[in-house]
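### Sample
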Amino acid sequence: MMAALSPPTLSSLPDSLLLQILVWLPPRDRVGVARVCKRWHRLVRDNFLWRHVDLSSCRISSKILWHLLRHYFQGNLRTLKLQGSLHSFRKQEILTSALLQALGKQCPKLHQLSLMELDLRSFQYGCMPSSLTTLELRSCEIPFVWFQVPETPCTFPRIQQLSIWNVPAFSNQHLLNIATQGTLKTLILSEVYRVTDVGIEAVAPHLKDLQHLALYHCSVGDSAMHFTRRHMKQLHHLDLRSNSLTDVGLLCLSGLPNLESLCLRNCSQLSPETILIVCQSLPSLNHLDLSGIDFEDKIFQKIQLGLPSCTVANTIPCADSSAIS
């Protein structure tokens, strides 16, 4: 009777339930439990566990990544996050051109790649897996000539979602190189001071299908909004937080037909009157973020009353005003 009342052990659980538990383990621990027994060794190799891999919290070498690729990633991997040691005193090579090319060949379902703190200056853009549709670069170094697609575009990624966070070398030319490919649906640029109004003017005609645009802490101003309104009529989400936007630039956005969400967080040079006029001209707008703008409560109430079909957010700024949620 005591045996019948004893709680179940991990070994008594079915494979399907064990897999749901193992998937929450960090990849390093996941590989480690393969030594427990033959059953766990078999389970750890299950395709389900290696579709979405986040190694951003692990300090690994290229040798370890090669091992993971050969024994676990092949044919399974969909998304991958990697963090290097670009800003560390002890630098360690994690990604090589050969490894990146092998990922492309052996993981044909890999569609999302996130790279953090990696030095990519020796990499050719042609090394990128051609299956990629989403690319995120955070605090990376890239070559001054990149994102170019030469004569054989079928062997290069067709990026639909591009996120660039604090990549010092990213410039107007980089943006033009990828915009002219005509595949972008989402573009997020944060702390890329080399992208200017001139760059937005050049790429805007190539971004007619763009649906999500975010420009955080960038060197763009009012004139960029003119070209945004003129060419990007499919925009659903526009995030302009912490930019030097004035009423002149905001007025350029009037009448965007499909815009559902507008973030003006920390845009302190805007007047409430202009905000209300512009937002009332946006027929699809349902969310407006005015957090961090120093308006009185009665001003926020007036804006909210003037936009009855729109939610207006005005949360108190956090202690670290540079953080981007």
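Residues 317-325 have pLDDT under 50 and may be disordered. This sample (F-box/LRR-repeat protein 12 isoform X1) is used throughout the tutorial notebook.
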